[in-house]
Amino acid sequence: MIDFDYRAPTTLEEALDLLHQHGEDARPIAGGTALVILMKQRLVQPKLIVSLRRIPTLEQLRADNGLLRLGATVTHRTVETAPLVRERWPLLAETFRHVATVRIRNMATVGGGVVHGDPNQDPPPALLVLEARARLRSLAGEREVPLTEFFRDYYETAIQPGEILTEVLVPAPPPRAGWAWVKFLPRTADDYATVSVACLLTLEDGTDRCQEVRLALGSAGTTPIRARAVEAALRGERLTPERLREAAQLVAGEVDPISDFRGSAEYKRDMAVVWTRRALEQALARARA
Amino acid sequence: MEQTIRLRVNGQEHELRVRPRRLLVDLLRYDLGLTGTKEGCSVGVCGACTVLMNGKNIASCITPAVFADGAEITTIEGLAQDGRLHPLQQAFIDYGGFQCGICTPGQIMAAKALLDTNPHPTEEEIKEWMMGNLCRCTGYYKILDSIKAVAGSAP
Fold first, then answer.
1. How many secondary structure helices (H) and strands (E) does chain A include?
2. Tell me: the pLDDT tens digits for A164-216?
């Protein structure tokens, strides 16, 4: 790594001041599990690193009127193990539990993961189906961006220079929602997914008719992808095995995977269909239970 | 550019001047001479550099040393007490938990973090926790046996 200056302010205001003064030369850091590697590879060469690790207000995890508020520097391990998350947002606890290894989850943060904007990450599809929002602060003020509009391209998000993501806000899943999160891992257990799928699904009372369904994929394009065509084909329909199979086929037209050492684009497209069907089946089974 | 940091390593206080780019693994090995901690992949994947920061297992190869300002660090050198090996160290000897030995400090530190939070893990819990610590001699069964012996897990 090349040399850089390091500051660890204790208030958000100081951190925002530093980012504002130094513009593109400065980068915030939290767990460092992504940024340090990018710096070692000299893909990113900031002159100033502003640590958010000593800002207590960013470390809070709490529920507020059914809204889960995840502070930017809450670690993956904390999300995975928090009883509140396990009980009321089991989809999130399950997803965060499968990110990399315990050693990484002890450092990697919720906010860091979201602003990293890597489409291969596990939490974003789960956050998308929960319709989570990013809360962003700058010296100019504050704004909220739904995650469906936050991810723009490979490693590119809606966050602007001088802005800090302070919280990820996660609404409660709909009552009696069935959920699923599946991750296709043909290589090693700590790898990024070849394809991953998150799903939330509710049924009309006592029937197999789909009331609401939300589905999103990771590792399937340049951003995490919400599969709207699959959702539209299922909403209001009776969820027979054939119907799930037909709807899952539609995901092939919504993903845009790249060929890499985890598989060719064609293979990943086929796997997106298979794992979408499996996610739908699992979510349906949970919704019936 | 250099900064002063204060940290406790294996119970001993240190005050050091470091550049922000100094990584924790290098601070331990070169500034403090604690070469038990190994660097393998340098990108947080292999687990050889595992140490405990405030009781939690972390990858010291991707952790800036400045993150450890005010922290308590435990390395493999901190486990033996009064000339007696830690039970995990003894078990790795008794059950043949290492071959070439490069991954062993990381394996033992990861296992210690597990047993500190969950003293009697099941075999599945041990496997899930230890999944990120690679052994290129592939001696995984003996590593599992060593940890199970200390954890008192059902076989």
1. 12, 14
2. 999 999 999 999 999 999 999 988 888 899 999 999 999 999 899 999 999 99
d(CA A219, CA A213): 21
Domains of chain B: 3-78 (3.10.20.30), 87-151 (1.10.150.120)
- B131/A189 CB distance under 8 A: yes
Please count the residue pairs, one from chain A and one from chain B, whose beta carbons lie less than 8 angstroms apart.
71
pLDDT tens string B20-56: 999 999 999 999 999 999 999 999 999 999 999 999 9
8 A C-beta contact, residue A69 and residue A60: yes
List residues in chain B touching A: CB distance below 8 A: 1, 3, 19-21, 23, 42-45, 47, 50, 56-59, 62-64, 66-67, 69, 110, 113, 129, 131-132
Q: Give all domains of chain A, ordered by start, each with its CATH number.
A: 5-51 (3.30.43.10), 58-171 (3.30.465.10), 178-288 (3.30.390.50)
Buried b (16+ CB within 10 A) or exposed e, A10-47: eebeebbebbeebeeebbbbbbbbbbbbbbbeeeeebe
Enumerate residues 6+ apart whose C-beta is below 8 A from B141: none
Q: Do B110 and A102 touch (CB under 8 A)?
A: yes
Q: Which long-range contacts (CB under 8 A, 24 or more apart) does A245-251 make?
A: A245/A277, A247/A280, A248/A273, A248/A274, A248/A276, A248/A277, A248/A280, A249/A273, A251/A215, A251/A217, A251/A227, A251/A276
Q: What pTM did the predictor assign?
A: 0.96
Beta carbons within 8 Å of A112's beta carbon, 6+ residues apart: A29, A30, A31, A33, A34, A35, A72, A73
DSSP symbols for A162-213: T-EEEEEEEEPPPTT-EEEEEEE-SS-TTSPPSEEEEEEEEE-TTSSBEEEE
d(CA A49, CA A64) in angstroms, rounded, equals: 32
Q: How far apart are the first and last CA of chain A?
A: 52
Q: Of all helices (H) and strands (E), which one includes residue A120?
A: none
Give the phi and the psi of residue A51 in degrees, each rounded to 5: -80, 135
The answer to whether the CB atoms of B69 and A1 lie below 8 A apart is: no
> 3-state class of B143 per DSSP?
helix
Rounded to the nearest 5 percent, the helix, strand and coil shares of chain B are: 40, 20, 45
CA pair distance A23, A115, nearest whole angstrom? 17
Structure ipTM over 0.90, yes or no:
yes
User: What token pair was written down for A267?
Assistant: 């293979």
